[in-house]
């Protein structure tokens, strides 16, 4: 039940973009496992989930919370108590957001903000939305994914009179209907957009473009959504500022280096159940993801080879103690091939024809293009589905390779997103909303911005508490000597 | 489906020993996951498994293999083809045994051996037993665990006229009946015992003690079984030599250091789903298991503290870069407590009363005594079962600790045994049988022996191939200079 | 003999800048040890070196090389053979420059270039200058440091009719005279400047500003020189483009992360002779230098604490497994304090008053300001000079701290610069000269530029050969997919 | 001045043994660098050292300490104050011995002991001898090496009326005369021997065998001395018990694993000045020394290959992430070859003929036999002595290899012994003396013993203080459960 489902909707002009959703961004759709298990036990308890054909659509139900409000559309309001417990557990873990609530509560920096949100609806994002409310905002919220909603969490929000429109198992029509219900309400003119995938933004552009006059900005988290915003921007059609929260330094480091360092091991254990010690592995690409994977496997006693196209990254691989090689030169001898390039056709049929029996092939990069899986769908090769995420591809001579997740991003398929990453993302989103809402006229143009360095640093600082970590403060004298403000930013904006 | 089941049989005089079965030894009962999944898919296909009450006992069935033999008792002979595929996959992985077949096939070192075996019945052990046959032995085989038999593997053996008596879900009575069927057959006098847990040995002692006149030796793998043999030996009742294969250097290093280095990460991810980076952890005990756990967590970016009672191990912890501390001194600040001591009451209620909210507590040591779990079963604490292997214990103030596997050995409960360890065990068993069967009169007395150093080295050498590793051979001159034989042993017997 | 001497010249208006020369840049003044030892044995052979007062100044000598040329001024032309051997040894090590000679020799990209150089005069820089000549340039060369010249290398160049003006032990007057002799020659109008410290540039600005009309650009390596250029640029006085080769990605990574990872260990062993295992260390600052130092000490078994002011770097320290703390919180318990901040007064008297007996204090940062050494020069403290680079400061209670290099940058004082770093610097300088000389009109304005990403990558690629490292080349299809040229640059210019 | 000098005395029957002194044991002759530098500055001050031919032998001098005693023979009593400072500095570092003084002072466990000692005479050993006196012993002391005496330390002891007979630069005749003066004194019958190399024991056997009636035991530290004792024992001539302090677990771990982990880096930097990052290295032998070297180089970013003859060690190398290979298979490509086998002719001419230009060859093993250096002394190869410990061997084609320390043990030649190892050795010696002196009749026979496990553990525990390390104590219940005494020993005697 840890799979990330892609949006299965097909409509002509956007097929490509929806395909590309199965990207790293997708990871955020995984709610933390505690919540998940609860969901599971819950849904397995409900017979509805088991017999979808008999189900009454939430759109056809008449539900009301205990305060008499009907401004929501969810699966089952009765799940509210259970969902509230989920949210409370998540609050324990989202310490940065809770600290932000405390720090900014007095000044209500979002007073007057009317936010329409379209993200996954989980216990963690619920903590985010309730934080926005604490900080003064009004919100309406739909799901960005038809499968990822935790119904009990939605119920808990609805019970608190939070207008939420989302359930697990929406149809395509439901999906857009829910989004519309966030925007198109009498007496409500949203002035901020919190988006994850660009669908809310797309919908407003398409249906209610006039609303953009009031909108102060868009905060977008997914690569796909950012891609769409840049597209708009290039075409001169972006009419409000947007902040790209995906590429903040803090988020990037965690998403790529630190998470992959752990999830490569986790994912390989869960799928191929391989012992790492003594194994020969080739890691294709030595960016942050490749660095994380290589370091983890080296630490576990694997012999790691690295391939690279960029001489600077290549030199780093050398200095970190990895043999830099071409894939073709080691592919016969290695026990695993891991792609982390973001490129296409990095592992092709010619390579796979040379692999030794039992070689594991998987992808930790950004898309499902790195391994040319289609080249394996030929008559002479036998595919044997061994278990979830694992296929054996058998050559006529009996030799088999072990293909994981059919070449899709492995840790999206088989690992959970650490709560820490969810927390960084949510905190960044909150700060980006505050920044855009309060920015003086002229600070932001109609363009796509990175999170200002100072806010990026603030997100990081809110997360240090978990580690019982204590920052040193500059003295006045030191700040002057360095030409820095005592509160940062401490590095130039390009610093990574 | 990765749980290790302990034998649930209760009979007065052996309760304690059967309890202690949930030890590290138990890990071998886990078959490798590939086989496992197949088993699962298979059994879920069969309606028998689902409706146990309707099931006909194998003892009441009349089955015959394609060659007309009926000398076996298993669940379903029709599963033979499927089981054969499992065995063939396992052969691919048990390269050391396959190499041994080739190396020793000509000389048939087990010609004349009549072996009764009582071990888990899985694809991997099937490769062992078929190897024994290739080397000249006759065998009869029962399961050492009432739940661990892979029925399709048993079928494949039966189809090859291998006398096997085992099925998944035996009753206690079935269990001893199967063992008896291995021993008590007309015209069959076993002269070797391959045991795992000591039940076969126990049965023969109890029922057919006269057989020991012909028995050349016992090969025992489990800690429990070895404990029983030492008990017999001390009481002067051991009447044949026995080899303890559990404590071979090769097996020990893999079981403890190398496996735990990987399984601590794997187990924690699967259960607590914790991010390791930046977490503070205290590892209690710095033996091989503690060394493996500490090294792995340090490599993943945790801050690791170590506790020890032995100053020599303590000094090693210091030199390896760990702060040596008492548990009480850091228990308030750490995010995880991992016991690896083999001792009892290492973590007690007083410690747990001080832990911070969310602290994870688990045991990687040898028994379920290290954490005083019973002290948590008091009225003021609430237990919340979150998912398999995970309980939250909630204090009156709302603080919760996360207890894994109820204090039992974590990686036995939540991780698989690497095939590599199964291979080392099986190869060691085969060599120990050959050694005892062929040893000249007088080499072994009626005592419990460790595997001779030279054979231990041979087991290691058979496993180097997997890593494409090439040993250097001593020249004559070098061997003379070192006072060594060119074929080993290369170290004194006490060398670890 | 590994000390870096600062320029001892005092003249009012530039005191500050000359002081700051004892910076990381200074490291390049250390010639590689092979050359050094040779120098030593050579100079100890010559009586001149021993009796400086009797020495005849090179300016007063009449020397001629074997071809009859007198256009040079050096210590002793007879040392030429010996110097040539030094240069040949250096050529073996400067493989990137030798590869560049081969790659670019045909096209003579520096044909027409008239370069005046002012750098250290060592075997390694000689390989650079002779490379420039091979690529078509004419050069005249003076030393940028009055102590660092290898006289035998200067002789070897002079013997090849290379106009070099440099000797070990120049006076201030000699220093400027030598520079002048590079510029002020009849029939010679330099059109490129290769500078290290900014003195050549300064001299031309002051004395021959008209020459700038012909000058195509300046290549500057030192932090001091770059600082001066930026100063000129801000003041609108920079009248030609300049390339800052100090801040190339490749050079920075090597200078800071990779070198410091090794030199922290080397320097501590050479000075304090400390055992690292089990020691508690606090590293102040977690930039590249701090990362290198922390990683190395952790690998050697030290327990490392980190202090930071920047939350993003702080979070990285946490994820890398270091306790983030304030200096004051651990200063009582640590065995070593290492500063890597680039800031001032990071370790002050209050800290040192609390340190335990034997605590080692040293600086790996950018200047000599990080440790407030002046606060230790008070009557109640006794300074005991134990050996080169090591002072014991003794408190009235007998407690002593071990101060290394009097708080100056430790590895500049006690470690050699790896040849690899010298090679990267020299190759970068050569490519920057080629770039500026051949750049089409308008590509560079009158400003200070970083090395273009593509050249940075080229420098890296020229150094991969040493590691027998093989780059992967993009296929056409892949390059298109990524939107990259097959020859790079592969990353945006801000990528680090 | 960090060289270890071997005893240059030649006498027929012992040549071999004296040769073998240049073994790891020799390292203890290196006094800690602080003392060393002091010595140096001191001796360079005295003109005697500079003009040995004019020197008056200490044997011909009439010296008296301030208390009127003349029972000593040293270089110069006037150096006493200076030497006392050295000893006091050493006391700061020998915390374990100082703790032992405190712990055992009351009971005077050596009251009645009359110890003749023959070890290096340095500040550290002085702390040992003064500890013995504090614990009740009377001592007389000679040097075990004609070059290693610190004259100022000897003076400080003499000033305290400690009978010491040692100076730097003894002749062979002096050497034995000094030893004789320890033994052959009226009214003095030694009952304990503390030896380092076996010369004191040898002398007593040869000249005063009757003394052995009173001798309670011998404590010997060097491999050579232990070899001699075993020789005596086998020949049935050993007439008192002896304890081998060299092979205590604590000492071995430090001498081999922990020291070599640091000294391989230190030694290579000091000699070859190589950068480790990205270099390919082959480490021959994966015992403790090989493990230390491999781990350190891997941590510094080298790519490490390992060769082994023992499959168990080989498998460990694999699991630790090293490619196991034969030397011949990688010798063409590596940048360094390091021997750690204890064997002979591990690197032979055939290997060296294949090495690439600049390959560094060195030995960290136990003797000077591992590299066949003699095979390089052929006419076609040119030896070029580059600096201390470094020779270039140049092949006719210009290719050169870099041979360190002429194949002798590298870290003995170029690194200092950490004070920590000296402290462990001295503490072990003291405890061994106490044990033998107080052992009840019959505990020890006329044989060579290892240090009892419990004392080995005690040595370790005395050293934990330095690391601020806190041992956990067993509860009564735990001790009973484990079948252990609360005070240890905690492991079986064979545990390493």
From TrEMBL, chains A, B, C, D:
Pathway: Amino-acid biosynthesis; L-homocysteine biosynthesis; L-homocysteine from S-adenosyl-L-homocysteine: step 1/1. Residues 15-68 are annotated as: Disordered. GO terms for molecular function: adenosylhomocysteinase activity. This is Adenosylhomocysteinase. It is an enzyme of class 3 (hydrolase). Gene3D superfamilies: Adenosylhomocysteinase-like, NAD(P)-binding Rossmann-like Domain. GO terms for cellular component: cytosol. It catalyses: S-adenosyl-L-homocysteine + H2O = L-homocysteine + adenosine. Pfam families: AdoHcyase, AdoHcyase_NAD. Residues 31-48 have a biased composition (Low complexity). Residues 256-417 form the S-adenosyl-L-homocysteine hydrolase NAD binding domain. SUPFAM superfamilies: Formate/glycerate dehydrogenase catalytic domain-like, NAD(P)-binding Rossmann-fold domains. The lineage of its organism: Eukaryota, Metazoa, Chordata, Craniata, Vertebrata. NAD(+) binds at residues 287-292, 308, 411.
């Amino acid at each position: 039940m840890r799979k990330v489902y892609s949006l299965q909707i097909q409509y002509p002009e956007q097929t490509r973009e929806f395909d590309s959703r199965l990207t790293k961004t997708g990871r955020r759709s995984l709610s933390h496992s505690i919540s998940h298990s609860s969901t599971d036990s819950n849904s397995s308890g409900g017979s509805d989930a088991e017999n979808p054909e008999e189900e009454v659509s939430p759109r056809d139900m008449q539900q009301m919370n205990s305060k008499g409000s009907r401004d929501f559309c969810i699966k089952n309001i009765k799940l509210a108590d259970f969902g509230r417990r989920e949210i409370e557990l998540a609050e324990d873990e989202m310490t940065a957001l809770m600290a932000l609530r405390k720090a900014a509560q007095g000044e209500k920096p979002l007073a007057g903000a009317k936010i329409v949100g379209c993200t996954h609806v989980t216990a963690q994002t619920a903590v985010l939305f309730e934080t926005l409310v604490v900080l003064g905002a009004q919100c309406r919220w739909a799901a960005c994914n038809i499968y990822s909603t935790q119904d009990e969490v939605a119920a808990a929000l609805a019970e608190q009179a939070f207008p939420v429109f989302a359930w697990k198992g929406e149809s395509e029509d439901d999906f857009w209907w829910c989004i519309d219900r966030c925007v198109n309400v009498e007496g409500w003119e949203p002035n901020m957009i919190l988006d994850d995938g660009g669908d809310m933004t797309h919908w407003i552009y398409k249906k209610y473009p006039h609303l953009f006059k009031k909108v102060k900005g868009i905060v977008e988290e997914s690569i796909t959504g950012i891609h769409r915003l840049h597209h708009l921007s290039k075409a001169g059609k972006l009419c409000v500022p947007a902040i790209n929260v995906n590429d903040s330094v803090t988020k990037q480091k965690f998403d790529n280096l630190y998470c992959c360092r752990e999830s490569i091991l986790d994912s390989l254990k869960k799928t191929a159940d391989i012992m790492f010690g003594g194994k020969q592995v080739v890691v294709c690409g030595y960016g942050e993801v490749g660095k994380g994977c290589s370091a983890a496997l080296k630490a576990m006693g694997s012999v790691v080879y690295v391939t690279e196209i960029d001489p600077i990254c290549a030199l780093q691989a050398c200095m970190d103690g990895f043999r830099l090689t071409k894939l073709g030169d080691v592919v016969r001898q290695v026990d695993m091939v891991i792609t982390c390039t973001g490129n296409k056709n990095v592992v092709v049929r010619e390579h796979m024809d040379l692999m030794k029996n039992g070689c594991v092939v998987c992808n930790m990069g950004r898309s499902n293009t790195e391994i040319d899986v289609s080249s394996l769908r030929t008559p002479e090769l036998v595919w044997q589905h061994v278990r979830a995420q694992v296929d054996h591809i058998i050559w006529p001579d009996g030799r088999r390779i072990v293909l994981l997740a059919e070449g899709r991003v492995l840790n999206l398929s088989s690992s959970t997103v650490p709560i820490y990453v969810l927390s960084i993302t949510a905190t960044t989103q909150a700060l980006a909303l505050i920044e855009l809402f309060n920015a003086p006229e002229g600070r932001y143009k109609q363009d796509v911005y990175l999170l200002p360095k100072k806010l990026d640093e603030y997100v990081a600082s809110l997360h240090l508490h978990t580690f019982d970590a204590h920052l040193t403060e500059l003295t006045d004298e030191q700040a002057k000597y360095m030409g820095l403000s005592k509160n940062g930013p401490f590095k130039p904006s390009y610093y990574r």
